Amino acid sequence: MDDKIIRNKELNIYEALIPVIVLVAMLAYNVFVYGDDALSGSNQFILLLGGSVAAIVGFFNKVSYKSMIEEVSNNIKSTTGALLILLFVGALAGTWMISGVIPTMIYYGLKLLNPTIFLPATVVICAVISIATGSSWTTSATVGIALVGIGGALGIPLGMVAGAVLSGAYFGDKMSPLSDTTNLAPAMAGTDLFTHIRYMAFTTVPTITVTLIIFIILGFTFDTNGNTDTAAILEAIEGSFHINGWLFLVPVAVILLIIRKTQPLIALLIGTLLGGLFAIIFQPGIVSTIGGSEQLDFQSAYQGIMNAITVETSIETTSTELNDLFSSGGMYGMLGTIWLIICAMVFGGVMDAIGALSTISAALLKLAHSIFGLFASTVATCLALNVTASDQYLAIVVPGKMFSKAYEEKGLAPENLSRTLEDSGTVTSVLVPWNTCGAYQSGVLGVGVAEYFIYAIFNWLSPFMTLLFAALKIKIKELK
């Protein structure tokens, strides 16, 4: 039955593309209407509508309803591990916030500021903060704004500073296990989170290295005047958290577990529990407050840690810039991404059941006679969706489902696809003015996309780097 569905010879390429074209058109209009709020639920329902269109095409091509539901069920089942990891990522982010792990990373990151190396320092600071928080949006909306202000006071072109902020922020967003896109890409491609991150480092590290070199050179092209005054921000962090170098033991422990190839769920669980333990030791006042008590006892400690793990928590500081940064959604905050993945699996499952993915993959393989051609087709599709559908998540979800079978048939491991999705889908979204990311970042930083485009070096260099690796056949892993 499955073979008959996958090899549905009655379905031609034009019929197979109907659901994709309709989906992209509906998503583009939905993002136009809802803007940044499109991910609150409307995009998810559009994916279900796209699945309905695919089902109608399937009915006309003699595919049964039962077969479609079975394939959807198999698709959702295949993402069980990814969904659990997302929940644990939210839990870990919560305990790392109230324990002071993330604030400590930010505190020492800001101390790296030096007027003579302002631009590369900006890249590094934003990278560290984005890795710690898993969010390029939060990084640019908090420290990014401060850095743009400092850069302007030093006489550095704002587009250049914004480009440095976004380069660092999106590097961290890509490499952080806390990032939703970093979890979404391997879920769509069919690999696990930490395999994806390790494999992505092959192209991402050279790209950020080139970016840093260029910003170091740019730093010598003008004189800087004034002082980088971050005293108020540092004071606000110290006023709300007990900053201590011992807190770095928590992320170091998780990194060591990852290096030793510990199962992701185990590593994240240990990181979450360590974060909770260190919160009680170093931030008892914060834990008791979140637990709804004036003093720390067993019950308030339990409630404080559980609230940080499961629901939205925030910590007020004397700096309004930092208040948004020092908040976490916990496991609850990951439900939107989980919802998106489930709906994407419904669309992908129906497309798979009616034979559309197989038909599209076969057409793509005919066009892409080489491995490089397949990588180039993936990059082009991600870029096209960032322009047309105006959303980075959709630039990962749709190509991920469309190309997974093509990579498999070429004998390529799924991490090739997940890496390419991030190298071309995640990072280039900020380069499109009408994309949700481009509109958000330009609005938050107060710098137009046209101003920072050329200086967002990491963002536009990433797809070229992944194509270079494909052309030279560097680190192209094959299926065992």
Largest sheet: 2 strands, antiparallel
How do the SSEs run, as a string of H and E? HHHHHHHHHHHHHHHHEHEHHHHHHHH
Low-confidence stretches: 1-6
Strand order, main sheet: write it out: 1-2
- Mean of residue pLDDT values: 85
Number of helices, counting only DSSP H or I runs of 4 residues or more: 25
Q: What is the share of helical residues?
A: over 70%
Strand content: under 5%
Structural class: mainly alpha
For the CA atoms, what is the radius of gyration?
23 Å
Distance between the termini: 26 Å
Overall outline = globular
Structural domains: how many: 2
The tally of strands reads 2
Structure description:
The chain is mainly α. It folds into two domains: 2-79 and 337-446, no CATH class; 82-333, no CATH class. It has 25 helices and two strands. It has helices at residues 2-6, 13-34, 42-60, 65-78, 80-98, 101-110, 118-133, 136-153, 158-175, 180-189, 193-219, 231-240, 249-259, 264-282, 284-290, 298-310, 320-323, 335-353, 356-367, 371-388, 394-409, 414-426, 436-445, 449-452, 457-472, and strands spanning 313-314, 327-328. Helix 2 (13-34) packs antiparallel against helix 3 (42-60), helix 4 (65-78) crosses helix 18 (335-353) and helix 20 (371-388) runs parallel beside helix 22. It is globular and about 70 Å long. The protein starts with a helix and ends in an 8-residue tail after the last helix.
